[in-house]
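Comment thread on ticket #2218

A.B. wrote:
> Attaching the input chain for the structure job we discussed in standup.
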Amino acid sequence: MPRRALALAVLTAVSLMVVLDGSIVAVALPAIQNDLGFTSSSLAWVVNAYLIAFAGLLLLSGRLGDLLGRKRVFLTGLGVFTLASLLSGIAQDQTQLIAFRFLQGAGGALASAVVLGMITTLYPEPRARAKAIGVYSFTQAAGSSIGLIAGGTLTQLLDWHWTFFVNLPIGVVALVMAVRLLETDRGAGLRGGTDVIGAGLVTGGLMLLVYTIVKAEEYTWADARTLGLLAVSLLLLAGFVLRQAKTSEPLLPLRIFRVRAVSGANTVMVLMVAGLFGFQFITALYLQRVLQLDALSTGFAFLPAPVSIAVMSLVFAEKLNHRFGARTVLVTGLSLVALALGFLATVEADGNYATDVLPALVLMGVGFGAAMPALMGQAMSGTSPADAGVASGLINTTQQIGAAVGTAILATAAASRTGSLLAEGVSAPEALTSGYRTAYALSAGLLALAVFVAAVALRGRAPQEASPVMVA
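C.D. wrote:
> Ran it. Output below, let me know if you need it in another format.
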């Protein structure tokens, strides 16, 4: 295998490991709760600690890649992530596990924020880059579903500790190969672009925003604590934008938002992931709490989605983008996903996996597998080498913000609907299913909005005609 292909394999393997770690513990949460004595409310922090650190540090990590060198930042993040995985697996109490999950999220942010920028530099030719981005997009699109499958398998056959230990051999091998295969890049240097104030504002603002969103499920959005935290987080982020407009060496150069593809793609990413990330957890709950599947069966029930994503993103996506253009493929793919979510909005309490869930998973996999490579390509088009790292960090940041927002909105809507029906005396399966239908309908609405934004904001150019990422 050529050296460049091996380098791509390392980058995408690490990206997949980081992405699936956000969901691999989902199926293992009951076992973790029983073993370490978590309460129902505190258990959420096993997931939230990772998400807050990951989302909050992505943008800063991308800029550090531009300044310090992407290989250096990538290796540092991979090392921290691998060590934190070991520590999480041997955690003896709640405090240790939550702290190590936060460290894991920080390492994941450092490693993954620079991957897309490294790929676009590694593959300067438009068609070759489109194929490489298709491989990367598969890891982003299918990682969470694969995580659910892996989590269910490891928890049931071994125990929850192995949902963390599984990262160790992958991380060590990837570190050794990355040192040898990835070319060293110097970066601009900290003296040429360190914006400490901006870094503090955006990291604090993003972390507080994600924290506010996940706590809103507990406090409700109308609670004074939620509104107060939201106001502070928005003030920090507004201060960051103002800082970027005035400083000579911004952490996030606002000029990249003048590239229509970049701004449009990031908006679509928020809407798309908001509709899809929460869908996975809602579907896992429907399969276990309504259809009565066990953890292992629930994990494998998701298998058709990543298989469909793999076939579409790895085999057909590049050809479709080359033939029809990124916007056409993106709009069509998102429309298929919206249709699949609309289909799920009709599930019944006495439903059947084969007829009520499986067709939607396949359709969703096909649509998402087509849409994700097109969207990633748009997000990186027209950016200069100096901004490739921050553009990569930005699209990953909007992805995580979308995940946090979507999960909070869908979980709150489902719980509210279910609670009101239970209070009226409706049976538990019927009330739960109605809540899940509400969440699916909201997801379909978010995807429909993403279709509209993609059709209006993004240009219909084919990849070979798009402005390529310039490489020195």
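A.B. wrote:
> Thanks. Noting for the ticket: The chain has 19 helices and no strands.
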